[in-house]
Specification:
Shape: elongated
Helix content: 55-70%
Number of strands: 11
Number of helices: 20
Radius of gyration: 35 Å
Mean pLDDT: 76
Strand content: 5-15%
CATH architecture of the largest domain: Up-down Bundle
Oligomer: single chain
Structural class: alpha/beta
Largest sheet: 7 strands, mixed
CATH topology of the largest domain: ABC transporter transmembrane region fold
Number of domains: 2
């Protein structure tokens, strides 16, 4: 780990003022150390020449004692102020990094969670990184960084002051001083690998624990709870072992640094004592050298100790920087500046979506998800896309949602390349119901109004009736104000699907994408949904993934097989309305 990672400053401009205060107070503390040693040497040397309070008063030592007390208070205030400013800087850094991490993760899109690494960035690992991991920066900024400033300032100031008072003692300190950072670097090289392993195990533990908690009902049902508990126990033991190894290295580092500093200080003390006995050095000069010598080594010892306390936060910050440095694909970018300036007048209620020889490949897969797909989706089309599991139906929806970018081929809307359309404007015209919709730990009304936050309760209720959700919502304890719990676990899978459908209906977007909307519904509810779709999709383009393509009452039926469009079946004509693409597996 670098002594000071410049990326932490680059990503935290608001904290630079606090860091400047920390450095300024460090300079103040350095000057106070020199003044304190000079006053204390004067007081002790003066007190040695006589006894009693009268002597103290006659020699002016009482004033020196008052000045010493003031210096001690000022040094304590500088130390407190430096730590407070550093904590403020840490709070700003953590806040900015979390905001940037969240914003960049949103821009990377949902596929990044599973495709960015061989094992993927699991949600639990990112959560651990953004919370427990970045909290470790408190130790980095509040303790390690102030000590690093003092370690750069105090030894040189002490060396100069001692050299002016006694050149021989200054020479000894100058020769032995580099030994402390040399040993610290040698120990730190081993610390880096151990700390990285410790952090990786913590991230893995957080991610796996989140997976287990979310899948607890399934694990209990299939009797796999105990094996997962054993996995968590194994990872916990590995994390404990790595933590103890890191602590052992920290204690070893402290012992080495303390021993080096003690031997160097003893060497100075011996030569000062011998020359003092021989009368070659005054008593006040000897006291000044002996008082300042430990101060030369103390900041270096302290920064070595604080280095170990800060490594976890620094390791987490490196992982954040790795994510922030991950390039965002063109599919997730808001669009080129030229396109944004031109404000392409794309209107999905009027413009045709054209796919020309589109191929989509995912990293790490040996075959294309889509291969040479050409398709036109006209306003008012109702298209059912059928095919076996893994045929590429959901990948086609991912392209239209711009969660993925075509590996080759071209997607145009009204003659304009889709990549040139600003992302926010494009998605504002789309309503999407995934096969496994996500509900937030909020009320039913809030979940329905997710894409239309200003919607009235009447509009929310109308959308719920259209999706067939009004009946079960009325039976909930607080109706539309009932909190559905995390991921909507208080509702059945069919009820969650109906809430997601109501959310899509309320959005009233010109393009509606439905990924098997009836997959979790009973037969009667699915039949009502099919009947309602004909009315609700009027004026929209609808692309629907349907498990049973025979239910589609109108439009075209498209068949995908191994990523290729193999068959197009005409169905009953439908009046111009939303384009409905239905995918069936």
């Amino acid at each position: 780990m670098k002594p000071l990672d410049p990326r932490l400053l680059r990503y935290s401009a608001a904290a630079r003022g606090y860091l400047a205060v920390t450095v300024g107070l460090g300079l103040t503390a350095t000057g106070l150390i020199l003044v304190q040693a000079g006053l204390l040497a004067r007081i002790l040397a003066g007190a040695a020449t006589g006894t009693g309070v009268a002597v103290l008063a006659s020699t002016g030592l009482a004033g020196s004692l008052g000045a010493l007390l003031a210096v001690l208070l000022a040094r304590a205030a500088a130390s407190h102020g430096g730590e407070t400013a550093a904590l403020r800087a840490a709070a700003d850094v953590k806040s900015q990094l979390r905001r940037r991490l969240t914003d960049h993760a949103l821009r990377l899109g949902p596929s990044w969670l599973t495709l960015s690494k061989p094992a993927g960035h699991r949600s639990g690992e990112v959560t651990t990184l953004a919370t427990r991991g970045l909290d470790g920066l408190d130790a980095y900024f509040a303790r390690y960084l102030p000590q690093l400033v003092l370690a750069c300032l105090v030894p040189f100031a002490v060396l100069i002051r001692v050299g002016l008072a006694d050149w021989l003692s200054g020479l000894i300190i100058g020769l032995t001083l580099p030994l402390v950072p040399v040993f610290a670097i040698l120990v730190g090289l081993h610390t880096k690998a151990v700390t990285q392993r410790q952090w990786r195990l913590l991230a893995r533990l957080g991610g796996h624990f989140l997976d287990v908690v979310e899948g607890l009902p399934t694990l209990k049902l299939f009797g796999r709870g105990q094996p997962q508990a054993e996995v968590i126990g194994t990872v916990t033991d590995q994390y404990r072992t790595a933590t103890m190894a890191s602590l052992r290295i920290a204690f070893l580092s402290g012992f080495v640094l303390e021993l080096t500093a003690a031997l160097a200080t003893a060497l100075v003390a011996v030569e000062v004592g011998l020359r003092l006995l021989a009368g070659h050095m005054s008593y006040q000069t000897a006291l000044l050298v002996l008082l300042l010598t430990p101060e030369a080594y103390l900041p270096l010892r302290a920064v070595g100790a604080q280095f170990h306390a800060s490594t976890e936060g620094a390791a987490a910050a490196r992982d954040v920087f790795e994510i922030l440095d991950t390039p965002v694909s063109a599919a997730a970018e808001p669009g080129p500046q030229s396109a944004r300036a031109a404000r392409w007048p794309v209107d999905l209620s009027k413009d045709t979506i054209s796919l020309s020889g589109v191929t989509l490949s995912y990293p790490g897969r040996d075959h294309d998800a889509l291969s040479g797909v050409s398709l036109s989706i006209r306003p008012g089309d109702r298209i059912t896309l059928a095919g076996p599991s893994g045929a590429g139906k959901s990948s086609l929806l991912a392209l239209l949602l711009r969660f993925a970018l075509p590996s080759s081929g071209r997607i145009e809307v009204g003659g304009v390349d889709l990549a040139c359309v600003p992302l926010d404007e494009w998605r504002a015209q789309i309503a999407w119901v995934p096969q496994h919709p996500y509900l937030f730990a909020a009320s039913v009304a809030d979940n329905i109004a997710l894409g239309q936050a200003s919607a009235s309760l009447g509009a929310i209720q109308k959308a719920a009736r259209a999706a067939g959700a009004a009946e079960f919502v009325a039976d909930l304890p607080q109706g539309y104000a009932t909190v559905v719990g995390e991921r909507g676990l208080r509702l059945s899978s069919g009820q969650r699907q109906q809430i997601a459908l109501a959310r899509a209906f309320l959005r009233d977007a010109p393009l509606l994408l439905l990924d098997e909307p009836a997959a979790h519904l009973d037969a009667a509810t699915a039949a009502r949904l099919d009947a309602a779709l004909g009315t609700l999709t009027a004026g929209r383009s609808v692309i629907q993934v349907s498990h049973a393509p025979g239910r589609a009452s109108a439009g075209r039926v498209l068949t995908l097989d191994q990523g290729r469009l193999t068959q197009v079946l005409a169905s009953m004509p439908v009046r111009p309305a939303p384009a409905l693409l239905a995918v069936s597996s």
